[in-house]
Structures are given as structure tokens and as C-alpha cells.
Amino acid sequence: MLPTPDVAADYEKVYEPAEDSFLLLDCLEQEKDYINTHYSSSPLVVEIGTGSGIVTTFMHQSIVPNGLFITTDVNPHACLASKATSLKNGGTPYLDSIRSDLTTALRDNIVDILIFNPPYVPAEEVPGIPKSEDAYEWLDLALLGGSDGMVVTDRLLESLGTILSPNGVAYILFCARNKPQQVVENMEQKGWQCEHIMTRKAGWEVLSVYRFKLL
Amino acid sequence: MKFLTTNFVKCTSKACDSTTDNFPLQFNDCELIQEEQEFKPEFLLNILDRLDWSAVLKVAHDLGNDSLPQALPENVDPEDPDTLALLKDLHSLLLETNITQGEMKCRACEHVYYIKNSIPNFLLPPHLA
Ligand SMILES: C[S@@+](CC[C@H](N)C(=O)[O-])C[C@H]1O[C@@H](n2cnc3c(N)ncnc32)[C@H](O)[C@@H]1O
Ligand SMILES: [Zn+2]
């Protein structure tokens, strides 16, 4: 077992690592050999919706120590937390955190490894960005994913081809109510190779992680 | 925000994607600090492969640094003392220079994004998103 990072975040404003976060860590641990054989020693690793930063810190601590790391989040507290968590665990030569929607502020086709634990819970709608930095609604943004819980993830999947580098991969987490099998079928029709990495029951949710790569 | 990040980010407006002026952003009124990092020549070599050098030059100029060579040497050999000196300069520029406050303007749509507490904010106001 690789060590689980020690987190530095205020859980009133930033998503506290939970079963979904830990599933992602276990998946990335299992994918360590795949990642290290398919990518140069300094891949650009981008985590969308970094929250506390636990996943990115795990990546630089245990999976790709020489990687370049960018984290994004719409929540400014998460952007600060992900840098703080990284530093608390020894830091890494290059990590930056930017406040943005998905990867819309990144140049096209530069991301080698993309990771996303999205707001996946089905809800009436995706909440808007709170007006005040102190608002408690930041946590709603971490969870609520609109219709089928897929509104945010769908936007990402649609633009995946312009985000990833030619050899890039994306690791994305789903819950059963996102209908991941249907997502995979659609993506395969569009020429994506989709690999199931792991599924786990967590309370009443069934969570799974898939890997997407252009054929 | 580290200097290296300026080589990865662009204007988020979809309309600007059809221009070439959405990258690099233009940096104004920036406050900089140096944060020490261990110098690892091989790591820097890996980074050089990905750089858009003309964008590095533009942003360095915005921040008042015009001392960089117009082009990177063809064969970067870290054993060569001149190259090693260049790598050290680049290490300090790309990885140690942090923009803590400032503005980033898109040369196409002229939208201004702000950097606060070292975090650049690329969220567009609702009427532009
Ligand atoms: C389920 S949490 C995951 C947090 C962390 N990665 C983890 O695994 O513990 C989802 C995160 O996505 C962020 N988020 C929601 N919508 C986003 C968007 N459109 N772009 C970027 N981040 C977003 C939330 O603020 C939240 O931090
Ligand atoms: Zn623009």
C-alpha cells in the first residue's frame, strides 16, 4: 500500500476526501505501471476539480514524481487547499493551481494524464458559482451534477479530444446512476478506447473509474 | 502562479479559439516573488521540450526580463558550462518565479483576468461564458 497523503483543507468549504477519492487513489496505484510505461518521465498531469488536492498529491508522491502538475477547480478555497496539501507532503518541483471551469483555460492538446472525480450526484440542476467567497454553497458544487449527475462530466467528454495530447489518457469516476456503460458505448462509437479500471460499493453508491484514450 | 504556467494557459473565451492572439496572455502590473526549488537539470530538459519559446520571451518581456536568448540552443548539453548557466537561469525563471498578484489580458478580446493570492482566476462573468 502506498501512503495516503495528509490533507490541509477546511472541510466547510472544500470537499473532504471520501470513498470516491480513495477509489481514485487505488485505481491510480493499480495503473502505476501503465502510466510509467506509456509516458515520458515528465508527463503533464491535470486534475480537474481538485478539492483538497489529495489525488494530485498522491500522484506526485507515489506515481509520477517527475510529473508536471496543474490542478483546476471553480472553488478558490480548493485551489489554495490543493497547493497546501501538496506542500504538507513535501511538495513537488512544479505544481500550480488555477481557478477555472474544467480545463477551459489550458491550451489545446497538451494534457498527458487527466483525472476527474466530478460532481456526479443526480440533481435538479448544477448549482451556480456562489457570489461570496465565504458561502457554504461551495460544497454543493462538489456533488451536484444535474440531470443523471452527468451535466459537468458530459461537457468534459465532449471536448476530451481537444484537451488530451495525442497519446493522452483521462481517468474519470462515475456512480451507477451516471449510467457509465451507456457513456462507454457512446464514447466507443466516437473512436475512444474505454477501459474499466475498478468498481466499488460505497454506502448506497456504486462507484467506478474508467480510462479513456483515443484509438 | 508560476512563470511556467504562463506557457500553458490561454483566454477561456470560445470565440478567441479561432484567433492566435489568445496565447500567451499579456501580463500587467504583476508582483513577483522567488520561491526556492531544488535545481534538477534533467527535469528542466524535459520541460524545455514542451515550451513555446516565443511565448516565454513575450511573457518575460511583459515582466521586465529581456535577457533571454532569441532561440534555445539546438543541442542542449547540460555538461557544457554555458548551457548549464542557461538552465540555471531558466530554472529560476520558470519554476522559482511566482506571480502573486497581477493582470492577464487576452490580446484578442481584451478581457482581463486577475491573479490573487498566486491563484489566477479564469472564470468568465456569466454574460461572457
Ligand atoms: C467530488 S469533488 C472531488 C474533490 C477531489 N478531487 C477528491 O477526489 O476528493 C468535485 C470537485 O469538483 C469541483 N468542480 C465542480 N464543478 C467544476 C467545474 N465545472 N470545473 C472545475 N471544477 C469543478 C468542485 O468544486 C469539487 O472540488
Ligand atoms: Zn479572449
UniProtKB/TrEMBL annotation, chain A:
Q: Which GO terms describe its cellular component?
A: eRF1 methyltransferase complex; nucleus
> Mind telling me which SUPFAM superfamilies this protein's record contains?
S-adenosyl-L-methionine-dependent methyltransferases (SSF53335)
> Record's InterPro entries?
DNA_methylase_N6_adenine_CS (IPR002052), Euk-Arch_PrmC-MTase (IPR052190), PrmC-related (IPR004557), SAM-dependent_MTases_sf (IPR029063), Small_mtfrase_dom (IPR007848)
* Keywords attached to this entry: Methyltransferase, Nucleus, S-adenosyl-L-methionine, Transferase
The record's Gene3D superfamilies line, in alphabetical order, gives: Vaccinia Virus protein VP39 (3.40.50.150)
For this UniProt entry, the molecular function terms from Gene Ontology, in alphabetical order, are: nucleic acid binding; protein methyltransferase activity; S-adenosylmethionine-dependent methyltransferase activity
Q: Does the keyword Thylakoid apply?
A: no
As for subcellular location, the record says: Nucleus
Q: Where is it mainly found?
A: nucleus
A GO BP entry? methylation
Q: Domain named Methyltransferase small: which ranges?
A: 23-122
Question: Which Pfam families does its entry note?
Answer: MTS
Q: Which family does it belong to?
A: Belongs to the eukaryotic/archaeal PrmC-related family.
UniProt xrefs under PANTHER family = METHYLTRANSFERASE N6AMT1
Name assigned to this protein? S-adenosyl-L-methionine-dependent methyltransferase
- Lineage of producing organism: Eukaryota, Fungi, Dikarya, Ascomycota, Saccharomycotina
Automatic annotation (TrEMBL), chain B:
Q: Which InterPro entries match?
A: Trm112, Trm112-like
Under the heading Gene3D superfamilies, the entry gives: 2.20.25.10
Q: Where in the cell is it found?
A: Cytoplasm; Nucleus
* Gene Ontology molecular function terms on file: protein heterodimerization activity
Asked if the keyword Cytoplasm belongs to this entry, the reply reads: yes
What does UniProt give as the signal peptide span? none
Which UniProt keyword terms apply here? Cytoplasm, Nucleus
* Biological processes annotated in GO: rRNA (guanine-N7)-methylation; tRNA methylation
GO terms for CC?
cytoplasm; nucleus
Tell me the domain of life: Eukaryota
Q: What family does this belong to?
A: Belongs to the TRM112 family.
What this protein is called in its record is Multifunctional methyltransferase subunit trm112
Q: Please give the organism.
A: Cyberlindnera jadinii (strain ATCC 18201 / CBS 1600 / BCRC 20928 / JCM 3617 / NBRC 0987 / NRRL Y-1542) (Torula yeast)
